[in-house]
Amino acid sequence: MSTAFSRRGRRFRRATLPGLAAALVAAAAAAPAAAQVAAPAYLDARTPVAHRVSDLLGRMTLAEKVGQMTQAERGAVDGNQGQITDLALGSLLSGGGSTPTPNTPQAWADMVDGYQSHALATRLHIPLLYGIDSVHGDNNLVGATVFPHDIGLGATRDPALVREVEHVTATETRATGPQWVFAPCVCVTRDERWGRTYESFGEDPALVSAMETAIDGFQGTSPEDLARPDHVLATAKHYAGDGDTTYGTSTTGTYTIDQGVTITDWPHFQRVDLAPYVTAVRQHHIGSVMPSFSSVQWTDRPGSTPVKMSADRELITSVLKQKIGFDGFVISDWEAIHQLPGDYATQVRTAVNAGIDMFMEPYSAAQFEQTLLAEVNAGRVSTARIDDAVSRILKAKFELGLFEHPYTDRTNLGTVGSATHRAVARRAVAESQVLLKNSGGALPLKPSQHLYVAGVNADDLGNQAGGWTVTWQGQSGNGAFPGTTILQGIRAQAANVTYSPDASAPMAGADVGIVVIGETPYAEGMGDVGNNGHTLEISAADRANIDRVCGTIRTCVVLDVAGRPQIITDELSKMDAFVMSWLPGSEGSGVADVLFGRTPFGGKLPVSWPRSAAQEPVNVGDPGYDPLFPYGYGLTTRR
């Protein structure tokens, strides 16, 4: 999911209202006996969900059904929240950087509850479902716990930890209002030139599937868990093949690989790109699935041409829903249907008939509803397809308990960014560190050593967290959110530390030099290698820091803070130890924990490390496989 704008959110003082069903029952009890009317079956929490869905569906007009299929960006309705009622909107979202002012847990909960009050003012009082990109913690919220991105979690090889990480994320997210997250990304990254590499757990579909304990962390493991205040509906994205697109096939702006074409045969697609979704559906009962912006072109079907995933009825309906057995709902990505061929009516008709159930039309909600109504009335979209879509959406709302508790349960509001949650993040950071070289026992460090630290990324929270942090693209610097930098973590464990961002300070007397290199933040195709100025090569400044520090101080350690491997082939011989730190998030102390041996190194590469950018794509199992560091490589140390 991509992009967004920041608008001022209205504050809403939550009314002390009971659940909607209880309110109606109480009102009926207060009326004269002769006038008493039983509450509708869909408001009876004791009634099975399937029956509640059927009962409510039977009471809805076509316009109300289409409203449930529509999701708008909060920025589009905030100035006139009556649109939520007038359009009978089923859902709102916050894109990256779309937040209330102030950006606090309380303000988030007030904002979402304010929108919810307008949804409950509709004829049938159907509550709103609010979605957000909590892709490494509740990352839009200032003060939330910011975890390592998925590629770092993949390096931990620790499914139980990943489940715990996402349970914390779910707890912080739902306590502040949203009940639905556009996560996890179960893409399989096959080319590190892709700007979304860090959103993937790795290049091996088996590893990605193993890390799908993330879904259990979000949703829980039983049907009753979803209604609890520490769980959210999860989304498996981006179905399917977005990490496997061919470099140079993207036609979106300056992108080179993101939103491109997966050129493949069916056996490869099924084994690599589709396999994680089978796991997500059959083992973890994922609640929603988001199709990719990318296309598929089959090499084993003569005459095949690229088909956008949002238009692919075979893969969405025949494969995902029917063959794999997905019974949740499919949500389109940000204005994704606008990339389909034809006029807007054709785009809407094609996507609905392909099997998309809810439409992320951030600034086109009214137009979408009018268009879909016209398509149904003209007979080009069947009422059966509409009923199927709406039934899937209502099922999720009932399972989330929104009809009984439509407003935010703020029980866990005080846990947002808590010491307990940050301790989980610190442990995840420590477990994610991959030791790729350690000559002469350079690591672990000793607290008594005089340490010389160089490199901007040693003391930059924004670079440490990467994209999807407070804003869509993320931002360099230390002012956007609270946390601990790697330098602060080192200083907490060693008394004698000299820091010089450009390695210009005197180095005399230093026992060990630590050079922190890496990337600056980016998200999605903006981070593709190519036209946007991004490259897998390390920067000239990082190269100079390595040369200065490693050429002067006897023992030299290099840390790479980046969302993907960088080309360090020529520099590797200059350093005694090399650590891949990924994008650790808000808890830089976790990096220091392994440097000083408080936690042993145990991380393993979730992707193959290329010798040069020209070697990409390089993946385990390739003919002539010869990367600089192979998939699964990682040295260990003792505590």
From TrEMBL:
Q: Please provide, alphabetically and separated by semicolons, the GO molecular function terms listed in this UniProt record.
A: hydrolase activity
- Residues covered by the Glycoside hydrolase family 3 N-terminal domain: 61-395
Keyword check for rRNA-binding, yes or no: no
Group of enzyme by EC: hydrolase
Listed A to Z, the keywords are: Glycosidase, Hydrolase, Signal
Residues making up the signal peptide according to the UniProt record? 1-35
Please give the Pfam families that the UniProt record associates with this protein. Answer: Glyco_hydro_3, Glyco_hydro_3_C
- Which reaction does this enzyme catalyse, per its entry? Hydrolysis of terminal, non-reducing beta-D-glucosyl residues with release of beta-D-glucose
| Taxonomic placement | Bacteria, Bacillati, Actinomycetota, Actinomycetes, Pseudonocardiales
Q: What's the EC number here? A: 3.2.1.21
Domain Glycoside hydrolase family 3 C-terminal, by residue range, is: 434-636
- What InterPro entries does the entry give? Cellulose_Degrad_GH3, GH, Glyco_hydro_3_AS, Glyco_hydro_3_C, Glyco_hydro_3_C_sf, Glyco_hydro_3_N, Glyco_hydro_3_N_sf
Q: Give the protein's recorded name.
A: beta-glucosidase
Q: Is S-adenosyl-L-methionine one of the keywords UniProt gives this record?
A: no
According to the record, the segments passing through the membrane are: none
* Species in which this protein is naturally found: Amycolatopsis cynarae
The text of the family note is:
Belongs to the glycosyl hydrolase 3 family.
